[in-house]
C-alpha cells in the first residue's frame, strides 16, 4: 500500500492540478487604443515581435537587452550568435533585410502593416556590463526602428555599469548593478527602468505610490492558449496588476514580458512584484499584464509535444512554432487574446 502511495505521488507531481484553476482574467473595459509593451532579454525580443505583428494595436515598446524583429530567423544557432554575441562572420541582421522580410509578411497578412509603427514611441536600454546581449545587437535594434519610427520618438539609454538584467528600485533583494545572474533584477543607483520607459511611452506620469498587494491578481491562462499551456511552453496561470481605479474601465494596458529564468516557475513572483511597474500603475490608471512562460526540456506531463526551452524563455527563435514571429504564433495569439479580454465590456 505504501509503495502504491509513493508511486501515485511521483506520477501525480507532474500532472496538471485538477479543480485548482486560478480565477478568470476579468473584463475591465480597458482602453484598447493605448496598449504598450516592454520586456527584458527574451521578453524584449517578444515585445518587439508583438509590437510588429500587432502594430495597429500597440502604440509603444520598451526594450531592454534585445535585438531586431525576427533576428534569429528560426535558428537557435543564430539566436545564440548573431542575436546575442555577434561576430564579423555572424553579425546582427541589417535593417534593410529585416524591412524586406516584414514587408513580405505584411503582404501575406501574417503581420499588421509596418507603416502602423510610424506613430509609436520606442525606449531602448543597454548595459555596458551586459555580455549576454552585446551592444552591437542593441544598436541593430535601434537601426531597425529607425526604418519605421521617427528618430525623435526613439530613446536609447546606456547604463555603463549595468549587467544583463531588469534595472529596478522596487525589488527587496536586488543584485548589484554589474551582475548578470538570476533573478536578473539589478539595482543601479536610483535608476528606475519601468518609470523611465513608461514615461517615454505614455507621457508625463503622476508620482508613483506603494503598490497594493491585493491589486496583483492571478488569472488562468488556459482559456487563451488554445489547448494545454505546456504545449506552447506557457504556464497555467499569469498575473495582472489592476488598480482599484481601473475596475470601472477606461485604463490603458501595458504588457510586461519577463526574461529567461524569470517566470513564476523559476523565481515565483519576484519579477511581477519586483520589476517596478506596479508602483507606477497604481497612480496612472494603468493595468499591467504579466503573461507567463515556463521551462520545458522535452516532454512534459500531459503534453505529447517535444519542446526544448529549459530556461523558460519566450519564443523568439522558433521552439514552439515555425511562425513564432507572426500573428499566427501560438504564444502571440494567447497574449493578444488576454489583451482583448481586458478590453471587453465590464461584467455586471
Structure description:
The chain has 348 residues and is an alpha/beta fold. It has one domain (24-343). It is built from ten helices and twelve strands. The protein has helices spanning 2-12, 42-53, 76-80, 95-107, 135-146, 193-202, 264-267, 270-274, 277-283, 330-343, and strands spanning 35-40, 58-64, 121-127, 154-159, 166-167, 185-186, 216-220, 237-241, 252-257, 286-290, 296-300, 303-309. An eight-stranded mixed β-sheet has the order 4-3-2-1-9-10-8-7, sandwiched between helices. Helix 4 (95-107) crosses helix 5 (135-146). The longest helix has 14 residues, at 330-343. Mean pLDDT is 93; it is low at 1-19.
Keywords, please?
8-stranded mixed sheet, 12 strands, 348 residues
In short:
The protein has 348 residues and is an alpha/beta fold. It has helices at 2-12, 42-53, 76-80, 95-107, 135-146, 193-202, 264-267, 270-274, 277-283, 330-343; strands spanning 35-40, 58-64, 121-127, 154-159, 166-167, 185-186, 216-220, 237-241, 252-257, 286-290, 296-300, 303-309.
